[in-house]
Design brief:
Low-confidence stretches: 401-405, 537-543
Distance between the termini: 93 Å
Structural class: alpha+beta
Number of domains: 4
Largest sheet: 5 strands, antiparallel
Strand order of the largest sheet: 5-11-10-9-8
CATH superfamily of the largest domain: Reverse transcriptase/Diguanylate cyclase domain
Strand content: 25-35%
Mean pLDDT: 81
Number of strands: 23
Length: 543
């Protein structure tokens, strides 16, 4: 009934999928074709084929050994029709998984020079496919390692057969014998190379005979396997975001160079992007990704394509300078540290800085792990001193690493109970940095909520009634007392509408990335009241 409904709807001949006929008491497939008269369908004729008998004959003589199998499948190449499962079973249930798409299966079924790739019990396999008129496919599935072995065996058998023929047919010219032997020997040697994992073979046999056809098909197959291996190797050793080497690729490239040049000098440079978490919090992770890509391009541009450059993970990068003497290494690191760095995202340009630690390789056989330890130690020493600088490794840093390096600037600002605020030293200066205590003071859940509430402007933190007074103090410092530290009291409004009285201390300083900035600490006055004889109430205006 399904076939008749299809013909009535489509008006074209069609094969049915295998089904069980209770009338015939067997599994069959049917071919149905409409009959037209004067453009009108007047009848449907068809023929039923004993599908059970067909697949029984197909599977009556399975291939010997475990190197391959012949499968009757559906159009997608993912379902097998077998004598015990005439309605089909998923190949995945037999641990056979197709790698290519269904469109390639259909295309391969119409040609003899295209293979489809499968995974069979964890081994990469290839299949030749022949499409049938009923929409099904014959699939000849073979494991690749066994293909190489069988190819080698077949070639050897061919050699023995040709030798026997040459003995019997002694009238054949000696030149022809030698020529055939040379061509076959090239195929044999190529098969051995592939068996040992070397895919860089070249068989340039243009003869229009069986050996030439064998050579060309074998060359094509090896090319496909080599391309797949090359892609996997590249992906496993490169960072997707930046295109640089990843940690695995870095270790391999540097280790290979050290092994090949044990007596040469070099330098291992470790660096990371300062305040990367703040970039993500303020502008989003896509902006952070663009900052990392920009830093990667800057490294390649500054140090050169000939050096080993990679992303160690997160916001950490590594440069190994080959054949670098101490003076040259220091000059290159210093130049990169002083270089202006900025990335552009969503039409806005944002400056950033990096911290750099490096160590020297003096041809003394120092291990790669030790080099990484020393450069990382120097990097943390830079972070401890405020970042945006560079330092070379010194043995004295080892004790610092075990004690003081436990508290870097990020850890301190995150846990310090006093609110910290860094802004541009301008009338309506943009907010550049806040710590967690500042978020808690304004009752904000995160930096994004804080920036939305304040509109990224320092004046919006102060209550409207006191903004002019605070602004005049800032202008006075900008014009007259640039080196003076100011203290002032004022009130603020929190994100939840509460009013708080604040005591603030601030000073102005020059920053290499943002120019003049204000550094301010803020604390609620109620924490100072126990030390003051008289204090205002929560609703008093401060003067």
């Amino acid at each position: 009934m399904i076939a008749f409904a299809y013909l009535m709807d489509q008006g074209e001949a069609a094969w049915t999928q295998p089904y069980y006929s209770s009338y015939l008491n067997r599994y069959i497939i049917s071919y149905r074709r409409p009959i037209y008269k004067d453009g009108v369908m007047v009848a449907i004729v068809g023929i039923d084929i004993d599908f059970q008998a067909f697949i029984d004959r197909l599977y009556a003589n399975p291939p010997e050994g475990e190197h391959g199998m012949v499968i009757l499948s559906d159009t997608t190449g993912t379902v097998e029709y077998a004598p015990d499962k005439p309605l089909g079973i998923q190949l995945a249930d037999k641990d056979i998984h197709i790698r290519d798409v269904a469109d390639k299966v259909a295309e391969a079924g119409q040609t003899d020079n295209m293979m489809v790739t499968y995974d069979w019990a964890g081994q990469e396999s290839i299949a030749g496919i022949k499409g049938l008129r009923n929409g099904m496919n014959f699939i000849d599935l073979r494991r690749k390692p066994q293909i190489y072995n069988r190819t080698h065996k077949a070639v050897m058998q061919m050699v023995l057969g040709l030798v026997a023929v040459c003995i019997l047919a002694s009238l054949l010219p000696i030149y022809m014998i030698n020529r055939l032997s040379e061509r076959l020997q090239r195929v044999i040697e190529a098969a051995k190379e592939v068996g040992e994992g070397n895919y860089d073979i070249k068989l340039h046999d243009t003869q229009r005979d069986d050996i030439g056809e064998l050579s060309r098909n074998f060359q094509a197959m090896v090319g496909k396997v080599a391309a797949s291996q090359g892609n996997l190797t590249y992906i496993s050793q490169h960072d997707v975001l930046t295109g640089l080497l990843n940690r695995m690729g870095l270790d391999k490239e540097i280790a290979d160079w050290l092994q090949a040049h044990p007596d040469s000098h070099g330098a291992l440079v470790s660096l990371d992007l300062d305040g990367f978490k703040l970039i993500n919090d303020l502008h989003g992770h896509m902006a952070g990704d663009e900052a990392l890509r920009t830093l990667a391009r800057d490294l390649v541009e500054s140090f050169g394509h000939e050096q080993i450059i990679g992303r160690n993970g997160g916001d950490e990068f590594v440069v190994f300078m080959k054949d670098a003497e101490p003076e040259a290494a220091q000059a290159a690191v210093k130049a990169f540290s002083n270089k202006k760095k900025a990335f552009t995202y969503d039409g806005e340009t944002h400056s950033f800085s990096v911290s750099i630690g490096y160590t020297l390789y003096r041809g003394d056989g120092m291990s790669l792990s030790r080099l990484f330890h020393q450069s990382d130690t120097a990097l943390y020493a830079v972070k401890l001193r405020g970042r945006n600088h560079y330092r070379i490794y010194e043995p004295s840093m080892e004790s610092l690493n075990r004690t003081s390096l436990g508290f870097n600037l990020e850890t301190i600002t995150k846990n310090l109970p006093t609110a910290l605020l860094v802004t541009e030293a301008k009338k309506d200066g943009k907010i550049l940095f806040v710590n967690k205590a500042m978020l808690d003071l304004l009752e904000c859940q995160n930096v994004t909520e804080f920036m939305a509430f304040t509109e990224e402007n320092q004046s919006h933190i102060v209550c409207a009634c006191e903004r002019e007074r605070v602004r005049q103090l800032m202008e006075q410092q900008l014009l007259e007392d640039a080196d003076k530290t100011y203290s002032v009291t004022y009130c603020i409004r929190t994100a939840k509408g509460r009013r708080k009285h604040i005591f603030s201390v601030w000073c102005m300083a020059d920053n290499p990335n943002y120019g003049r900035v204000f550094y301010a600490t803020l604390v609620e006055q109620k924490f100072l009241w126990p030390f003051i004889s008289e204090h205002p109430s929560e609703d008093d205006n401060l003067v």
